[in-house]
Design goal:
CATH superfamily of one domain: Lrp/AsnC effector binding domain/regulation of amino acid metabolism (RAM) domain
Helix content: 25-40%
Structural class: alpha+beta
CATH topology of one domain: Alpha-Beta Plaits
Number of helices: 14
Number of strands: 16
Length: 380
């Protein structure tokens, strides 16, 4: 596999004015600022200025400019394990003619995080974040969809919380607007590199939390740079109380990281996939996990529970899709992977939401109304 350099403007020449506007946001200074924010968090611009050596006023002004065009720059990414929840990827093959009904049905229990159409063996890809005590109920609900002849088949994959990966811009030439895909170098790094990091099934008990913790988390999932004063107005509390609970969320591990609305290349020239990578052993899995932060086409990954397997979300320029599949195939040939499979995601159909604090009660915990869910399902 040879190294390839792709000039983004050439890929998107039919709408050059738009692509130039996107690339204006990825000049060397903004890349430096955004990369520092990804490392230290989006709220402390003074620390970003200190780390980058860029004056605070410049940092503040540039972030304001980016936010005025991006609308939402960054979201809080919660560690759902710490609030007693399990992340579940549900892949569904809808019966012909039932596609729109299945889209609606996947959202009825209201524990969904994302629902989108996909291509491949399945028609729908959804992420459900479900309280641990209700996982069985979700499986039964999906089975009911199958019994009602809405779906032909489904796959139910429990994972730990996902790890967000900020793009590695070291392979980007912002002057020329070029990305360099070092396929051979990446392949060698995965095959022969030392596993510097490990990824494991979650262990330990969730932190003690209240409904206000969940409400604050949900609002910061919408916009992680929302001020404590603004959050306070929404949750009917003081800014000091919001800060107290936010600090508790951070120290308790609920704040896993931040998801930046910064893609390496525009959605319009990109392909989105979710891969299931099944590894030969734990060492091979950790070797890939350690190298993933340098593979700028990887957006996020999560460990499938009780397996040496990772679910990996990728975003790549269309012209490099075949090379990406070859890359994973070579990992099979090298004995790192035992197999891999993928679905292609239709991001234009994607709907997202935050966790649902309205389903939590301080006295009785997370709710699941079986009767209400089945009633809504029957209405479809």
């Amino acid at each position: 596999m040879r190294t390839e350099t792709v000039r983004v403007l050439d890929e998107y020449a039919f709408n050059g004015r738009f692509i130039r506007e996107v690339l204006k946001q990825l000049d060397p200074t903004n890349i430096k600022i955004l990369s520092a924010m990804a490392a230290v968090g989006p709220r402390n611009l003074l620390e970003v200025a200190r780390l980058t050596g860029i004056p605070f006023t410049t940092v503040h002004h540039r972030i304001a400019q980016i936010e005025s065009k991006a609308e939402k720059l960054v979201e809080l990414h919660p560690n759902t394990d710490k609030i007693g929840m399990v992340r579940i990827v549900v892949l569904v093959a809808a019966k012909s003619g039932m596609e729109d009904i299945v889209t609606k049905a996947l959202r009825i229990p209201n524990y969904w995080s994302a629902v989108e159409r996909c291509e491949g063996a399945f028609t729908h890809h959804s992420i459900q974040v479900v309280p641990a005590q209700h996982v069985k109920k979700l499986r039964e609900y999906i089975s009911t969809m199958q019994a009602m002849n809405f779906v032909k088949a489904f796959r139910f994959i429990q994972t730990g919380s996902s790890h967000q990966i900020f793009p590695d811009f070291s392979n980007y030439n912002s002057i020329a607007g070029e990305w360099t895909f070092e396929w051979n170098g990446w392949l060698n790094a995965v095959i022969s590199g030392a596993p510097a990091e490990t990824i494991k099934d979650p262990k330990g008990q969730p932190m003690n939390y209240e409904k206000i913790d969940l409400e604050i988390t949900a609002y910061l999932q919408v916009n992680a740079r929302m001020s404590f004063a603004e959050v306070a107005r929404k949750v009917n509390a003081s800014a000091n109380i919001v800060k107290y609970h936010y600090d508790k969320l951070r120290s308790g591990g609920v704040v896993a990281g931040f998801d930046f609305n910064v893609t390496p290349y525009p959605v319009e020239i990109s392909a989105f996939h979710e891969f299931m990578l099944e590894f030969n052993d734990t060492n091979s899995m950790n070797r890939f996990f350690s190298a993933a932060k340098n593979l700028f086409f990887i957006q996020q990954l999560a460990k499938a529970l009780r397996k040496n397997a990772l679910l990996v979300r990728t975003t790549i320029i269309n012209s490099q899709v075949e090379k990406m599949f070859t890359f994973f195939s070579e990992l099979v040939n090298a004995g790192q992977l035992t197999s891999f499979s993928a679905v292609r995601l239709n991001m234009n159909s994607r709907a997202q939401q935050t966790i649902s604090p309205e389903l939590f009660d301080n006295g009785s915990g997370w709710q699941w109304d079986v009767y209400k869910n089945l009633l809504e399902l029957n209405k479809l």
